[in-house]
Amino acid sequence: MLKTQVKTFSELSIQELYSILQLRSQVFVVEQNCVYQDIDGKDEKALHVLGIKNNKIIAYTRLFNPGDYFEYASIGRVVVAQNERNYNYGYDIMKASIEAIESIFKLKKIKISAQAHLKSFYNNCGFIEYGETYLEDDIPHIAMLKG
User: What sign results for the dihedral spanned by CA atoms 72, 112, 57, 21?
Assistant: First the structure.
């Protein structure tokens, strides 16, 4: 069972922040073999959705108000630890993220920049792709909207 929490940057403990950065680095930099600037100065503006199992952060997203990243509310840095992906926690963390945007930001329209190979996963979460595929950090991405 995945427990979720939503926190502002200032509400994160040092240990939580370290765990988040470690998870993001493990997946986005090491596993995907992609050198990029993960610590981008945007975490302070974001709401952070933590997916916790056995007192460990194993899934995560960050949420933005319209104008902070895209013209619409957005979900980014969607990540599930590699050894936890067989349990559908990606759907759990996305559901919690969508609910947080709807309840906290009071918005329904959400934009994401999705890795193209995960398009069907995001379709299953209610997102529809639009526009052409583009490269972001040398990985094919597609813009997607929900609401």
Answer: negative
CATH superfamily to which 3-111 belongs? Gcn5-related N-acetyltransferase (GNAT) (3.40.630.30)
Neighbours of 144 (CB within 10 A): 22
Where do the structural domains in the chain lie, given as residue ranges? 3-111
Q: How many helices (H) and strands (E) does the chain have?
A: 3, 7
> What digits encode the pLDDT tens for the residues 84-128?
999 999 999 999 999 999 999 999 999 999 999 999 999 999 999
Please give the structure tokens belonging to residue 5: 């929490």
**Degrees (nearest 5) of the Cα angle 112, 39, 96?**
40
- CB-based contacts of 66, cutoff 8 Å, min separation 6: 72, 73, 105, 107
Distances 91 to 11, 79, 96, 102, 122 between C-alpha atoms, Å = 24, 11, 9, 16, 9
For residues 65 and 73, is the Cβ–Cβ distance under 8 A? Answer: yes
